[in-house]
Amino acid sequence: MKQIPGLGIVALAMVVAGSVAALTAPSVAWAQGATTKASPSAAALASVPPISEQLSHPRSEMREVVERWTADQAALLRRYDAPYSPYRRDRMREFHAAWRARLAETDFDALSREAQIDYLLLDNRLRYELELLDREEKLMAEMAPLLPFAGRIFDAHEAWRRHEPVDGAAAAAMLDRLAAEVGEARAAVEAGLRGEKGGVKTSRIVAYRAAEALASLGRTLASWYGFYAGYVPVFTWWAAEPYRAASEALSGYAAYLRQAVVGIAPGGEEPIVGDPIGPDGMEADLAVEMIAYTPAELIEIAEREFAWLEGEMKKAAREMGYGDDWKAALEKVKTLHAPPGGQPQIVRMLAEEAEAFLDAGGYVTIPPLAREVWRMQMMSPERQKIAPFFLGGEVIQIAFPTDEMEHGDKLMSLRGNNLHFSRATVHHELIPGHHLQGFMNARHFPHRRAAFRTPFWTEGGALYWEFFLWDNGFPQSPEDRVGMLFWRMHRAARIIFSLGFHLGEMTPQEAIDFLVDRVGHERANAEAEVRRSFNGTYSPLYQAAYMVGGLQIRALYNELVGSGKMSAREFHDALYEGGTMPIAMVRARLTGQPLSREGLPPWRRAPDRRRTAM
């Protein structure tokens, strides 16, 4: 059997053989009918820290304040649950403004340091929530000519939420008028497409957003109608037929916008449209993340990183016998994948390898329970259309071909999830990446996890470990290095195409081509990546956060560990135990930087003199 570089021959043989014996042999304990003992084992006892040690961790007297804000916000959003409703916007504006006012009354200087951090993080979040409400109002204003009837639905929904009695005859009249107004709005768009005077003209992006809003309006109307229908007989007598007509008008209008304006063929796969937030939105999003760089500067950083990565790719390609043709070396690496059904054993092996590497270096504390509880889940073919690689946390979701996929899709999934790509990402998803992050977040300052979640800490932190493992000799072969470099090129590309798109400088198709031509993605995987980035599931800065956050954490590591102020273990443990927050605030927390209620001064990380890309 030929050994694949970077994998032990025994481990590879286990994958190919499917480890049938290990899967089918009953455990000795089960075969002997063993029972669980009442007293804990030494290993179980060791997994529970002494209670005194747990009580000695720093506390924040602002924790209950943050938890109250989080709970109150969630309750209000359940009550005001109609997207784009002016009632919801007005109430949430009032809510966040009141919280800011109360927060300003607090004696900041009397708070403990951890509480001061929570104060600043909460004020930062409240300011941003108000910005988002202004942004939503602008989006709704752009859609208003296409949705002049939306207020009727919002009024009916709000009356229901206020527990007002319903008048069946009045409801029927409202629904009848609603159906007519939807028809009139559609006719105005049709006239605009024909270039007729008085017609409504719109862009593809606004029409796409309006079609999504129409679907939301339909659901809001259905919730309102469903509450009364059948339970209030006279309401149903009056409103059933007008509701049917109004509901069909809404869905028909949405379908028309999607087909005639957006360009989505019936039954066909949706094009990637997205909704750029523009320079103003980008400025607000960077401010809440405490990023002291402009989008142009971030793109420049990504380009410099790309140049360094291409140089390293060429070095690995030369070692593999491909000269400077790193794309040929990349194609070779893509062929080194597990056989169908073999990926779970690869994941297990790679997870254990990463843990052993971290243990040997003493780089971070890994609680025994964190090692024990992570699990695997195979990803459905449908899910793989937008997530063609691993997703992680306590459960690592594995993308790999299924028997029902088309042949070409099977091959691309095998190639895109090859052994060396996987070796660079399993630790990103499990330990020391997302699984360990989540485990620690749930046990240290857990209130920060919901209120102050940021991809610059979460995704940036997982990517930081890819940097760290590279720097400390984790890759064992040029094939391993190609796998790790591919993913770092991918993250640099994310900065370029995601910021370019939201600034209106790159189309989704150009982003797909960029990933294929510049990074070496399989085209189907590139399409899935771009669709995932722009379909509204992720915030505009999410994809840029991987590398930007990773570079920030790496710079902070160099500042504190490189100077001898902390050991690697102390730094990583402190990073995890502080909870999720913008990296500039992590720096303030770990360096003892003085804090004031005005917030932090801008932080621009120091260059890493060990490499030009930093």
Structure described in brief:
The chain is an all-alpha fold and 614 residues long. The protein is 65% helix and 1% strand.
Core attributes:
614 residues, disordered N terminus, mainly alpha, 2 strands, disordered C terminus
Question: What do these coordinates show?
Answer:
The chain is mainly alpha-helical and 614 residues long. 65% of the residues lie in helices and 1% in strands. It is built from 30 helices and two strands. It has helices spanning 9-17, 20-24, 28-31, 42-46, 51-55, 63-79, 86-104, 113-143, 150-161, 168-193, 204-228, 233-262, 278-288, 295-319, 326-334, 343-361, 368-373, 381-384, 407-416, 419-423, 426-429, 434-441, 447-451, 455-471, 478-502, 508-519, 523-534, 542-560, 568-577, 583-591; strands spanning 375-378, 395-398. A two-stranded parallel ribbon has the order 1-2. Helix 11 (204-228) runs antiparallel to helix 12 and helix 14 packs antiparallel against helix 25.
